[in-house]
Write a structure and sequence with these properties.
The protein is built from six helices and seven strands, in the order ββααβββαβααβα. The protein has 141 residues and is an alpha/beta fold. The chain has a five-stranded mixed beta sheet, with helices on both faces. Strands 2-5 form a two-stranded antiparallel sheet. The longest helix is centred in the middle third of the chain and has 18 residues.
Length: 141
């Protein structure tokens, strides 16, 4: 049986107070992505601009940080930190499916392609509106 794991990027919309990471993010995009990945039963993790690789059951509070406005050197440093976290936390998998924008993927993709037989980015190149539509129409991942 194919072993898969998912990486889902964080979003700006967050609840106040402490929550499980899976419950913290409030945007329609994240809620749809979460629904899709949880339906697979496969392990999944959040790519957090603040925390790096984040397990969905980890309790965290809101933060105001994004890779979209971060300078290149900081994004590279973030990716190096995430790669170390992946070494320790990602399960063995035949495929990693990445639901994240380019800024969250750019310095992680070479690492992922070396460490996993298949790396898939199903919404690559789609605008946010088309990503939402794609997730609405996806039967399964």
């Amino acid at each position: 049986m194919l072993k898969r794991a998912f990486l889902v990027c964080c979003v700006a919309g967050k609840k106040a107070g402490l929550h499980r990471a899976a419950d913290l993010y409030t945007s329609a995009w994240f809620i749809k992505a979460r629904r899709l990945v949880e339906a697979t039963g496969a392990p999944w993790f959040i790519l957090s601009a603040e925390h790096g690789l984040l397990a969905p059951d980890k309790t965290i509070g809101p933060y105001d940080k994004t890779l979209n406005t971060m300078p290149t050197a900081e994004r590279r440093a973030w990716a190096e930190r995430v790669q170390l976290q992946m070494d320790a936390e990602l399960p063995e998998a035949d495929e990693i499916i990445v639901l994240a924008g380019n800024r969250y993927r750019e310095y992680l993709m070479p690492y992922l392609r070396v460490h996993f037989p298949t790396v898939t980015v199903p919404m690559e190149g789609l605008t946010i509106g088309r990503q939402l539509n794609w997730m609405d129409n996806a039967k399964t991942l």
